[in-house]
Structure formats: structure tokens, C-alpha cells
Design a protein that fits this description.
Layout: E1 13-20, E2 23-34, E3 41-45, E4 47-49, E5 52-54, E6 61-64, E7 73-77, E8 82-84, E9 90-92
Antiparallel strand pairs: 1-2, 1-7, 2-3, 3-6, 4-5, 8-9
């Protein structure tokens, strides 16, 4: 899988792009676990709330791996590409 940024670390925010059927979807998430055996990682997805993002009450987690069905690619976000307000809502600057 081609990525523009290096492999993420636990705690990094990532912008995920998935090819679902013929549509391209973008998600934001934080990395919660790295697989030691293969080139994949687990994330906790943020839910959109208006123009910002937040973690929902129910943890929405997923395994990010190369190949079908979603063909994910990712960008690791640096600290200048996101901010958190006093209500723990996140804004991404991309």
C-alpha cells in the first residue's frame, strides 16, 4: 500500500482514505495499537459533529490493513494539523 507519510505510532492522529465500492471516503482516527506481526494497526475513529470531530460514547474501532476490501491509505498528522478545544472536540487543518 502506498502512503505519503511514515507508518504511525500509538497515539498518532491519522487521516484515513478508503476506497469503498466506487466512492472514496475520508475518516479521522487515533492509533490505539500496532501489530507486531504484520504491517497493520488498529484505530479509534472520531465521529463528525458539525464542523468538528469527537470520540463517541461507544468506541468505534477498526483494523487498518492493506488490500481488500477497503484499500486504506493514510497520512500521519503532525501537531500543527489538528487542535482540541475545551470540550474535547477536534478540528483538523488540511
Amino acid at each position: 500500500m502506498k502512503t505519503e507519510n511514515p507508518f504511525p505510532n500509538v497515539g498518532d492522529f491519522v487521516k484515513l482514505t478508503a476506497q469503498i465500492h466506487k466512492a472514496q471516503k475520508t475518516y479521522y482516527a487515533t492509533v490505539i495499537e500496532i501489530s507486531k506481526d504484520s504491517n497493520n494497526f488498529s484505530v479509534r475513529f472520531l465521529q463528525r459533529s458539525g464542523t468538528k470531530y469527537s470520540f463517541g460514547e461507544i468506541e468505534d474501532v477498526g483494523l487498518i490493513a492493506s488490500g481488500p476490501p477497503d484499500f486504506y491509505s493514510w497520512d500521519v498528522l503532525n501537531n500543527s494539523q489538528w487542535s482540541m478545544d475545551h470540550r474535547e472536540h477536534y478540528t483538523f487543518f488540511l
